[in-house]
């Protein structure tokens, strides 16, 4: 006689894993966003105000306190006197418009090692580069060759951007070198003078012909049009 037994198969049990994710309080999330926007606001405000404070506290005290003295009577040059009353409305609206008309486009380059500016293009009457004032003599010639360049807030500085290239011009020091290459000849100049003047003071454009000079001009403090910085250099005799 055979006996049979039956075992009832139990159904598989389901395993449920519960993960509790803590909820972020809405109030805490609001505080986080507020902190981020506050820090961003502080950063932007600092990036605007610090260049002005740095100019007042660091760079300006190093310059002579007396007014720039022109080597010749103010507006001794008829060309200069006629130029100051007519300003260009183009890209260079802060530059006295030149009365000199050149027969051909004149280019040369400027290299300033301290500022890491390498062969920046200068064009007489240019709008997309450094601007060479056409009423000034060419590099290497007796007289004062004048070059205008733009500055901007350090946040936007790019050494290859002609809208910001002279941002750090105030950091130049007496004895720094400036190299000008024109017509396959290199001219070396040494900085000997820096001066800040009012925008309407055009005495920095005056000429003197006892030697060859270059004058670099930009707006200061960087990012403003309040003042004009003049950096003058004299040619080095080889």
Structure, described:
With 238 residues, the chain is α+β, with helices and mostly antiparallel strands. The protein has one domain: Sortase (Sortase, Chain: A, Beta Barrel), CATH 2.40.260.10. The chain is built from two helices and eight strands, in the order H-H-E-E-E-E-E-E-E-E. An eight-stranded mixed barrel has the order 1-2-3-4-7-8-6-5. A hairpin with a 2-residue loop joins strand 5 and strand 6 (185-197). The longest helix is centred in the N-terminal third of the chain and has 34 residues, at 26-59. The model is unreliable at 66-92 (pLDDT under 50).
Short description:
The protein is α+β, with helices and mostly antiparallel strands and 238 residues long. The protein is built from two helices and eight strands.
Q: Strand tally, please?
A: 8
In DSSP terms (H or I, runs of 4 or more residues), the helix count works out at: 2
Under CATH, the homologous superfamily reads Sortase
Largest sheet: 8 strands, mixed, barrel
Mean pLDDT: 77
User: CATH top level?
Assistant: Mainly Beta
Strand order in the largest sheet: 1-2-3-4-7-8-6-5
Helicity level = 10-25%
Strand proportion, as a percent range, falls in 25-35%
Number of domains: 1
Order of helices and strands: HHEEEEEEEE
**N- and C-termini, Cα separation:** 129 Å
CATH level 3 topology: Sortase, Chain: A
- Give the CATH architecture: Beta Barrel
Which stretches are poorly predicted, pLDDT < 50 over at least 5 residues?
66-92
Rg (C-alpha, Å): 32 Å
Query: What gross morphology would you assign?
Result: elongated
Q: Structural class, please? A: alpha+beta
